[in-house]
Amino acid sequence: MTSTLEQAPPTTPDRRTRVARFLADNGALVGLVVLCVALFIATPDFLTGRNLLNIGIQVSTVAVLAFGVTFVIVAGGIDLSVGSVAALSSMVSGWFFASAGLPGWLALLAGLLTGLLTGVVNGLASAYGRLPSFIATLAMLSVARGLTLVISDGRPIPTSPQVSFLGSDVGPVPVPVIVLVLAALVASFVLNRTVVGRSMYAVGGNPEAARLSGLPVQRILVTVFALSGLFAALAGLLLAGRLDSAQPQAAVGYELDAIAAVVIGGASLAGGVGRISGTVIGALVLVVIRNGLNLLNVTSFWQQVVIGLVIAIAVGFDVLRRRTRTG
């Protein structure tokens, strides 16, 4: 006598669950499209060529800064120092050119190296010093901003022609937009196509499991923060190129915009989840909101309220995403 076990048909998620998952995975893109349509209806100046170029220039600094933060958040950390590191890097580059007489290209490299070194210090403090990344980078935020003011004595410093070129145009295309595209390609390649990038997801998802599987967790964390510092330096040089000078108060508060762009773009503050393409979309959402509110003559005070609400909604989507994936 033979018996057969009847297999229950595989359950398929209902429509409500599918919609929830779609919005959780693509909420930022859907929100960006809706936002652009609404602003197009509200003001005819939004989709003009000049305004779109302006959006591209503005988003370049935020997005490049956020690329480095993406690495850190994917690895399960946080970097609050990127705004100050951006300012310090541009100031060091300007000082080496204007005061030390270094050639322009070497001064530019000095600025990038400054960001890289500050990132390494953050990584060492977090990985080997056992400091929470929040505390380590909060300390670097203050140190880097203080050093920026010491070097500049509170005054702007001229930048080299090479840094100023980063704020210029190549034909009709702004150089910051070109740098944004190249930086996005490099960051995406590192995160998705390299061993280090895949290791970031493993460390952020479960650092203890990553350690037991043989991954050098501490070295990966140092690399993550070093990359964050390097991208912060590049963002600082882009900002200095736009301003045609290194400003001691440059990029104040930009670290919050960078973190917000990463979270809005779908990364999880719990670690292990994040995409460079999502970060670009998140940065676009922030910049488009500010641009649209400016076109609508909304005061900067209310703009801060709106940005705060957007961040809260993005974190809510993060919670929803984790529930739908585990539920």
UniProtKB/TrEMBL annotation:
UniProt keyword annotations, A-Z: Cell inner membrane, Cell membrane, Membrane, Transmembrane, Transmembrane helix, Transport
Classification via CDD domains: TM_PBP1_transp_AraH_like (cd06579)
Protein origin, superkingdom = Bacteria
Q: Where in the cell is it found?
A: Cell membrane
Topology in the lipid bilayer: Multi-pass membrane protein
This protein's GO cellular component annotations are: plasma membrane
Q: Where are the transmembrane segments?
A: 20-41, 53-74, 80-98, 105-125, 131-152, 173-191, 220-240, 261-289, 301-320
* Keyword field contains Cell inner membrane: yes
> Which InterPro entries does this chain map to?
ABC_transp_permease (IPR001851)
Protein name (database record): ABC transporter permease
Pfam families (UniProt xref): BPD_transp_2
Entry's Gene Ontology molecular function annotations: transmembrane transporter activity
